[in-house]
Write a structure and sequence with these properties.
The protein has 172 residues and is mainly alpha-helical. It has 7 helices and 5 strands; from the N terminus they run ααβαβααβαββα. The protein has helices spanning 3-16, 26-35, 49-58, 71-74, 81-88, 105-114, 148-164; strands at 41-44, 67-70, 99-102, 118-121, 140-141. Helix 3 (49-58) links the parallel strand 1 (41-44) and strand 2 (67-70). The longest helix is centred in the last third of the chain and has 17 residues, at 148-164. It is globular and about 65 Å long. It starts with a helix and ends in an 8-residue tail after the last helix.
Length: 172
């Protein structure tokens, strides 16, 4: 892209920043997860890579994340598994060690689950619930971000309990 066009694109996307709001409870949830020792990353289908970093910086959240993967930068969009793997690999995590929190059932929940991650769905009011129509379900559902640290800890405890006492009678 030519320099003048690049500057126009940047100006356009920066003009959207005042419209970005951080959801209630997001900073507290992120801080709680970081305090719990979790690696934090962002996977976004944004059309301009720097936009996510700018928005997070404006919201005071950028420094809390270990990895940011934007589809515009990597050429892959959610729900494709490769975008989830692009986030996990550099953090040294296997898909089974990852957990994705998202609000879009198809792109976030189904994408993460099909990529081998656990998933928590945070639906917005009025979102369509696809659980009755698919075998791919989130590991948990919450309507409040501030519940995430406790919810993630509960999922981890449940997973460890299943590893110790698998449902198949000890055969793994």
């Amino acid at each position: 892209m030519r320099t003048e066009n690049r500057a126009r694109v940047e100006e356009l996307f920066r003009s959207y920043l005042p419209d970005v709001t951080i959801k209630a409870g997001a900073a507290e949830a992120i801080d709680g997860l970081a305090a719990g020792g979790y690696h934090l990353g962002v996977i976004s289908n944004a059309a301009h890579g720097p936009f996510i970093s700018w928005a997070l910086a404006d919201g005071g959240l950028l420094a809390r994340f270990d990895r940011i993967v934007v589809s515009a930068d990597v050429g892959i969009r959610k729900p494709w598994p490769q975008i989830f793997h692009a986030a996990l690999g550099p953090m040294g995590l296997a898909p089974a060690e990852g957990l994705y929190v998202g609000n879009d059932y198809i792109r976030d929940v189904m994408g993460a689950k099909l990529a081998g991650l656990r998933a928590i769905w945070i639906p917005a009011s009025g979102d369509r619930d696809y659980r009755a129509y698919t075998r791919v379900h989130p590991d948990a559902v919450s309507d409040r971000l501030e519940q995430l640290p406790d919810l993630v800890k509960s999922l981890d405890r449940l997973e460890r309990a299943e590893e110790i006492s698998p449902a198949d009678g000890g055969r793994r």
